[in-house]
Design brief:
This protein is an alpha+beta fold. Among the domains are: 90-137 and 202-343, Rossmann fold; 346-408, Dna Ligase, domain 1 (2-Layer Sandwich), CATH 3.30.1490.270. The chain is built from 15 helices and 24 strands. It has a five-stranded mixed beta sheet. A four-stranded parallel beta sheet has the order 8-7-12-13. A four-stranded antiparallel beta sheet has the order 15-18-16-17, with helices on one face. Strand 5 (151-154) and strand 6 (160-164) form a beta hairpin. The radius of gyration is 23 Å and the shape is globular. The mean pLDDT is 93. Residues 78-451 form the Circularly permuted ATP-grasp type domain.
Length: 475
């Protein structure tokens, strides 16, 4: 399959360098592409599409009035990352998660970082994600953020930047695992020849981490799901199946004398660890939202008594707030006395007068984000928006400045994709997954999200993005 006409314009392309030469870690795959016919590549893509449907790799889009389940399109061309690149990412992510965990322990206990004025007290204590019932708590083994999915992008110079920290219920890992199985079948020989690091042991590592949270020799573990109508239900059921643990929802659980039990056909069975995939506010109607129909009355008291462990711990959401994100470099310096290995995207906090003035004056050049929105919603991409949209967001910022941050429009890197017109460049981001048990481990692969429309920077699945298998090479 020829790559003439492949254009990444002024963006950093991960297969070709600025002179049009193949980067060394793409060399072997490029040779394969040159030998493969368009018909062969299209057949591989068709087979991948069928495999996804057969596996049920779907997600729901809540705002979609049709209420349809959608397939997350998997592009047949893998994204390839060299081992040296990965080692830097790995070191930077471990550093970041270590610091954020110390931050969470501090703000729910001694609050030294707030007293020392490194992070504004009002930013944390006034956040809807700061859970006062967690004050004074230390979760099992002192770990708050057990499972993290951190979003990264690359700029026009190829430098990686942290775009977002996802410490609540990061999704997408099942797509990483299932996509790998599909792509391995598409390129069995090439996969072995390239020396791709495995991701298939993720469920075993996840289970080991969850078991580590309990002091029992054989703890009972479950995945807590909101139910079949949740957008990530495929992932909840998939991970429970792969780990060989129970998939439960609120009605399956009961609390007696601050101990949590599953209702089974053989009677009540105590459960020790829950990988929860429901938000904090829905967890316990007696402690948080009294109208929650998804939660388990009394489960938070069981947690405080040390009779159940949660991954992630309640209260972690305050550390991945988009406004707190701007302070993470200072958080790393404060707790670890180190400079960040991976930098943030430069961020303007609209809560600060000088930053706000700059954003209002330069809104046409910036990406403006609502601090409590996700999935690409509540966002303005200045250069691609109309004057009316600029004016609307200016007013939103003036009305509620604390609710917005802004960042320069970084040009996401491009990678090769199979399109209707052959192989062409499309923009991507990267979401590696990090587990924190007896040590911090970065899984050597990631969910690569891809903007399927030419020139688009929107990679979110809920807004038409797709995905790729990510190959991290041994050498």
């Amino acid at each position: 399959m020829k790559t003439e006409g492949y254009k990444s314009d002024e963006h950093f392309d991960e297969m070709f360098d600025s002179e049009g030469k193949i980067r060394p870690h793409y060399e072997e795959y490029f040779q394969y592409l040159n030998k493969a016919s368009p018909k062969k590549m299209n057949q591989l893509q068709h087979s991948a599409n069928k495999a996804q449907k057969a596996m049920g790799m779907t997600f729901n889009v809540y705002h979609d009035n049709q209420g349809l389940e959608k397939i997350l399109h998997l592009d047949i061309v893998p994204r390839i990352i060299s081992n040296s690149e990965w080692k830097k990412l790995e070191a930077g992510l471990k550093q970041r998660i270590h610091a954020l965990n110390l931050f969470l322990q501090d703000i729910y206990n001694d609050q030294k970082i707030l007293k020392d004025g490194i992070v504004p007290s009002e930013l944390i204590l006034g956040s809807s994600d700061f859970l006062k019932p967690c004050m004074g708590l230390t979760p099992p083994k002192g770990i708050w953020c057990h499972i993290t999915g951190t979003d990264l992008i690359r700029d026009k110079n190829g430098e990686y930047y942290i775009l977002e920290d996802n410490l609540r219920c990061p999704s997408g890992v099942s797509y990483m695992l299932e996509s790998r199985e599909i792509i391995k079948r598409a390129y069995p020989q090439l996969f072995n020849d390239e020396g791709v690091m495995p991701v298939s042991d993720y469920p075993a590592k996840l289970l080991k981490m969850l078991q580590f949270l309990s002091d029992k020799p054989k703890p009972v573990v479950g995945v807590l799901t909101p139910g079949i109508y949740n957008s990530a239900y495929f992932e909840h059921s998939y991970l429970a199946l792969q780990m060989g643990v129970e998939l439960v929802n609120g009605v399956d659980l009961i609390v007696k004398d601050k101990v949590v039990y599953m209702q089974t056909t053989k009677g009540l069975e105590q459960i020790d660890v829950l990988y929860r995939r429901i938000d904090d506010s829905f967890l316990d109607p007696l402690t948080f939202n009294p109208e929650s129909m998804l939660g388990i009355p009394g489960i938070f008291e069981a947690y405080k008594a040390g009779n159940i462990a949660f991954a992630n711990a309640p209260g972690t959401g305050v550390a991945d707030d988009k406004a707190v994100y701007a302070y993470v470099p200072r958080i790393i310096k404060y707790y670890l006395d180190e400079d960040p290995i991976l930098n943030n995207v430069p961020t303007y906090l609209c809560r600060e007068e000088e930053d706000r003035k700059y954003v209002l004056d330069h809104i046409e050049e910036l990406v403006v984000k609502e601090t409590n929105a996700a999935g690409g919603y509540g966002m303005l991409i200045g250069p691609k928006s109309t004057k009316e949209e600029h004016d609307k967001f200016r007013q939103l910022i003036k009305d509620n400045p604390k609710n917005y941050i802004a960042q320069p429009t970084l040009s996401l890197s491009t990678v090769p994709c199979l399109t209707d017109k052959g192989i062409d460049a499309r923009h991507v981001d990267l979401r590696p997954y990090i587990l924190y048990g007896d040590e911090i481990e970065v899984i050597p692969g990631a969910l690569t999200r891809v903007a399927l429309k030419k020139g688009s920077l929107v990679v979110n699945s809920s807004q038409g993005g797709g995905s790729k298998d990510t190959w991290v090479l041994y050498n």
